[in-house]
């Protein structure tokens, strides 16, 4: 036991009190000293290498660092020359400017513009920190002025001071006279400002002759009423081109043949062109068959003329009506065909006698009429409706020549007028991309149709059964609306495939209602089946735009088309 205690005894000699305390039963147990079984390692070389690494800079080409570098080592500059063909290091690859690395600064655009303009105006500016002033010039006050916080009076004072500093010598007395050259030079104005007018040079003989000819032309134009914005008076005249205006029985040339009647109840699609009417010098804008019989065809053109053609007999031009000074926009027959309306871009609406070619009356509001219609009722054939360019539908009583009603709700030029519901109502379309339904004689809209998907509808046709409206939409489709109380869109019927965007191509029905047809912007005439909405046939009709198409009311397989090439074609 004594030997065991002696082995655990401490190496150093301790005092008797310490040994007594350690041997007492109340003291804590003895702790054995730690002993390592590993051999001793000399870490002098490791310490020296760490000290050397801490003192030398990092090699930027290293991908692995065996010790923890300090911040000073990470941001220390590269020491020593670089090999010209050495690979790009990370330090040189971080350049985003030819002079080094440029950091983005969070500066408001207003503050940057303020300092930028101040530097170019006064020659100094504050750096982004706001503590220092940069530039050759120095501010005159402790608080540097900028272009935005400087008073207008100070701007003026500095401008005058700069002007005075630039003047090395006093101004001569001539510089105070605005009519002198010195004043122009010192005030830096246009060399033509303040110059005296030179005496007029004499005209040569050629110039005198030209001036006299110009004055003569101007006087002649003013004598005709064309000068100073006045419209020239157009001489209304008509020329008959047929053999005789009345036959041996005294019948007029517009009298329909007695044996004219429908040959078949079913309509068929035409296949070939059987005749061409060429007489207009410009594009044809509209064609209309004679009501009920179709033995005559009326055409309106951009050459300011209206012509009527024979369809059943000689197929020649029968009469030319000349009364408009500008292009004719629309035409419309009366119920019996003895009279018709024409609307032109000369802002006039003329009521013609079909047989004699005389103008019965003329109406105008000072605006361009886009569409004209007579009330289809037999007892209201003296009521004229016209859709104008000033967003109004104007109603005239042609007996008195007075405007009896104005329908003013549209937000754009009115394009079409279509009577529905036994002529008690009519539907109008406009450039405001909407449809409006009116009670005849009451200027209050009873139905307003406007959807986000709708486009302008420059042509509307009524189905022969009077239950549907076909509207030519400028998004290259034909939409069908009901003529019942709600005037709903029929989403199951839609006719598409043609290109009409930008053109007011006419849409129409066959007399039996089985086919829908329309011209397009590429000169073709399209035919669709009414029930299936499928394209039935396409005819290449004109070189330009095929603007109008009409189905013959009696001969059920014949169609007339017109285009901007000035030709009217008859198809069978």
Automatic annotation (TrEMBL):
Biased composition (Low complexity): 9-29
GO biological process, one term: mRNA splicing, via spliceosome
Keyword terms, alphabetized: mRNA processing, mRNA splicing, Nucleus, Repeat, Spliceosome, WD repeat
Keyword Nucleus applies: yes
The organism's place on the tree of life at top rank: Eukaryota
SUPFAM superfamilies: WD40 repeat-like
Stretch list, region Disordered: 1-38, 155-179, 191-256
GO cellular component terms, A-Z: catalytic step 2 spliceosome
WD repeats: 277-311, 321-362, 407-439, 539-572
Gene Ontology molecular function terms on file: mRNA binding
Annotated Basic and acidic residues bias: 194-234
Location(s), subcellular: Nucleus
InterPro entries cross-referenced by the UniProt entry: PRPF17, WD40/YVTN_repeat-like_dom_sf, WD40_PAC1, WD40_repeat_CS, WD40_repeat_dom_sf, WD40_rpt
Keyword DNA damage: no
Chief localization: nucleus
Entries under PANTHER family matching the protein: PRE-MRNA-PROCESSING FACTOR 17
Name of the molecule in the record: Pre-mRNA-processing factor 17
